[in-house]
Specification:
CATH class: Alpha Beta
Largest sheet: 4 strands, mixed
Number of strands: 10
Oligomer: single chain
Number of domains: 1
Helix content: 25-40%
CATH architecture: 2-Layer Sandwich
CATH superfamily: Imidazole glycerol phosphate dehydratase, domain 1
Radius of gyration: 16 Å
Shape: globular
Distance between the termini: 22 Å
Strand content: 25-35%
């Protein structure tokens, strides 16, 4: 289990992650919609994930959501170590009712995030859906991953959000799989 702790004047966060787990989770961020999304991510990626967070949510959810993304990305990067034997690339297309999302990623060590989603709603209950992009931008950058999230179509923001988190989970699960045929780092450079 990889552990990341982050304490700022705005947030205090602890993340524990096992990329080769069973999908067990214990999430308490103070942001109920994010809790739900992280539970889906852990379950569908078969990641064991514990997240506790306190933040200045009386102002808004932004700092908490972004800082949890940073911590999750750092946990992914730390858990991968030297990336010996991993598949490296992951891709998944996921339908969620009327929504279809594709996620592709490369655990290249070179962060770059593309988030191509046009929201049809601004809020899900009290949650600002623009924070989904902030979260994934933080995850991809901190994980040093090349991450592309594309909404092919869909209108309901809840369905789109679920499709993003589930597709990201399945793509990452594929990328971190150990390939028994691979005898080293998956790069001609010899390092990632």
């Amino acid at each position: 289990m990889t552990t990341i702790n982050r304490k700022t004047s705005e947030t205090q966060i602890a993340v524990e992650l096992n990329l080769h787990g069973d999908g067990k989770y214990n999430i308490n961020t103070g942001v109920p919609f994010l809790d739900h999304m992280l539970e889906l991510w852990a379950k569908h990626g078969l990641f064991d994930l514990n997240v506790t967070a306190t933040g200045d949510i009386e102002i808004d959810d932004h700092h908490t959501v972004e800082d949890i993304g940073i911590c999750l990305g750092e946990a992914i990067d730390k858990a991968l170590g030297d990336k010996f034997g991993i598949v490296r690339y992951g891709f998944f297309v996921l339908p969620m009712d009327e929504a279809l999302v594709e996620v592709a990623l490369d655990l290249s060590g070179r962060p770059f995030v593309v988030f191509d989603v046009e929201w049809q709603q601004e809020k899900i209950k009290n949650f600002d859906v623009s924070l989904i992009e902030e979260f994934w931008r933080a995850v991809g950058t901190a994980a040093k991953a090349n991450l592309h999230i594309n909404l092919k179509y869909g209108k309901d923001a809840h369905h789109v959000s679920e499709a993003i988190f589930k597709a990201a989970a399945r793509a990452l699960s594929n990328a971190v799989t150990i390939d028994p045929r691979r005898k080293g780092i998956p790069s001609t450079k010899g390092t990632l």
